[in-house]
Specification:
4 strands
């Protein structure tokens, strides 16, 4: 089975998790670290997202979990395919 996660609406996590199979906490840039943004979340947004997650019914969570697993399997296969293509292009 898959997992339903709570994450921030900031890179890279918002590229991996969607509302379809996860709970997204709004985030905002609150600083810089070298070339990267630092993100923060408002306490109330975090609390509200957690509240939404823990009050979501079991059937919805199971459906979200299955979608999360499918998304992971798809991304994993795409990643392996791309790596194999790169290896074949550059090493052969």
């Amino acid at each position: 089975a898959g997992a339903v996660v709570i994450t921030t609406d900031a890179a890279p996590m918002n590229e991996l998790v969607t509302n379809e199979y996860g709970f997204i906490v709004p985030a905002f840039v609150c600083g810089k670290q070298r070339l990267s943004n630092e993100y923060c979340v408002a306490r109330n947004d975090f609390k509200n997202t957690i509240r939404t997650a823990i009050t979501t019914d079991a059937n919805t969570l199971l459906a979200m979990s299955a979608k999360a697993r499918q998304a992971f399997i798809k991304r994993d296969a795409e990643f392996k395919n791309k790596i194999n293509q790169l290896i074949n292009v550059h090493l052969h």
